[in-house]
Amino acid sequence: MSKKVLYELEFPVRCSPGILYEFLSTPAGLQEWFADKVDFRDNVFSFSWNGTEEEAEVLEQEEDEFIRLHWTHAPKDEYFEFRIQISEVTNETILVVKDFAEKKEIKDQSQLWEYQVKDLFHRIGN
């Protein structure tokens, strides 16, 4: 099995960092766009999609800046992260998604994230 590599996607978003962070870090916010059902207990999110359930542990987070999660079934050094940055040039809010995938799967995984983020933007009126 080939080793997964870290890749990064950037999405400009018309939304304040505070509002965006709520959609990225709370069960209610994540349930709006990321999964059908989301629960949070003991620093672990439980995500459900069509009856399939996955768990992700919160590794690190800073309010209005980022949240880093680790799928409990994945290797310890892999994670996915939602980071909020402000462009120094345009003062625009940017959502940065970091994730791991095998090199040949990065394009497909990127398209999946783009679909998910498009749903997020629709929910926040972007």
Automatic annotation (TrEMBL):
Gene3D superfamilies, per database record: 3.30.530.20
InterPro entries cross-referenced by the UniProt entry: START-like_dom_sf (IPR023393), START_2 (IPR045736)
SUPFAM superfamilies in alphabetical order: Bet v1-like
Domain START-like: 1-125
Name by which UniProt lists this protein: START-like domain-containing protein
Species per Swiss-Prot/TrEMBL record: Chitinophaga jiangningensis
